[in-house]
Amino acid sequence: MAIKDRLTGLRRTNQASRESALAAAAGWLAAAQNATPDDGAAAWYDLQRSAWKDSYPETTGYIIPTLFDYAAFSGREEFRDRALRMAHWESDIQLGEGGVRAGTIDSQPVAPTVFNTGQVLFGWARAWRETGDERWRTSLVRACEWLVAAQDKDGHWRRFASPFAAQQINSYNTRSAFGLARAGVLLERPDFVESALANVRAVLSRAKANGWLDHNCLDDDSRPLTHTIAYSIRGILEVGVVAEDENAVTAASRMAEAVALSQRSDGALPGRLDGDWRAAARWSCLTGNSQMAINWLRLAEIHGDRRLVDNAERANRFNISVQDRSSRHPGVRGGVKGSHPVDGGYMTYRYPNWAAKFFMDALMLEAGYPADR
């Protein structure tokens, strides 16, 4: 398959309509949920082992709004039902102190972690907004209060880092700040928004002169993934919008423009960038492509400046071109690989559920639907 991936014609001819690509990805997420004994979504499909991984609380949490959005976008109510089942499961497994566990449901040790908790906020917030069920408001408040209590006075989260991550401070925790800010608005809790902004300001205080953020990768701080770079940009941008902090919005815009300069002619981004915003990998991280497409489209909405819309559309076209919609295998059909080629350096030979989630969000946002909002 890796050899097939490298055939140049595959990227140019495997195009499809936005709607068919979305339907295929939604079908893959349904298969990922069906593959588990609970109502979570399997973390990934492993091509080499021909097996699904166990449910992943972190990413199931932020898949919930994507399925609500797709149900409304497509008129397919079954995806709303799936989102509600996921939200119930997330509340059932919420830890006693309010946080969300690290890793997949089978991971040891069972420990709450800041990043995962921040991601599940998106699901509980959306489920509560959709239904008004107090169950999800309760889960949301408990998780937000746990995050605020875990935060240091300078705005960073140092405690409760994932035991599966490389370092204590992670710039991409701004994505958790984004979840906290969104919940703060929904719950009418300005203290949650203030905590979110404190984290963004703490992260930006460490930025280099060129806008570069250190401590921004899962495993290689000198060459972070476009996936985690995009996480941090989105968090800074959206918290800046919610808190009306123009400095944060400007910083996110500057970073997004720097990433755009590394985009290849085929629309893909390199999987890793160095501290000068230059390509540091030959393979592409498909999740990062989708996330940056979202960031570029959001900046166009916020500023009315469409200079980066073409970058977003080209990134989306690339990802559509490498999505396998004809495979007979439900673990592959409609899914989105970790890397292209599939043997690249991120989620090698795996189809992660978050890749499908961000792929769908990017395509719905490009279509004018307010996805993941």
TrEMBL record:
UniProt-recorded name of the protein: Uncharacterized protein
Q: Which organism is it from?
A: Salinisphaera dokdonensis CL-ES53
